[in-house]
Task: inverse folding
């Protein structure tokens, strides 16, 4: 797993949405969604994007 993808996950958690994080990260929403889906597949679990 790449550090970049972990940063993407953190950005989504902080922004509260994938589209908001994509805007902050200056990448497209579909690209960000795909990266997060790949991350979920590698863990074999659905990720929660809400900060506690």
Result:
């Amino acid at each position: 797993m790449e550090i970049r993808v972990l940063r993407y996950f953190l950005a989504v958690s902080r922004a509260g949405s994938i589209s908001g994080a994509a805007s902050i990260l200056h990448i497209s929403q579909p690209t960000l969604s795909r990266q997060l889906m790949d991350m979920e597949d590698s863990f074999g679990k659905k990720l929660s994007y809400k900060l506690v």
Notes: The two ends are 23 Å apart (CA to CA). The chain is about 70% helix and 0% strand.
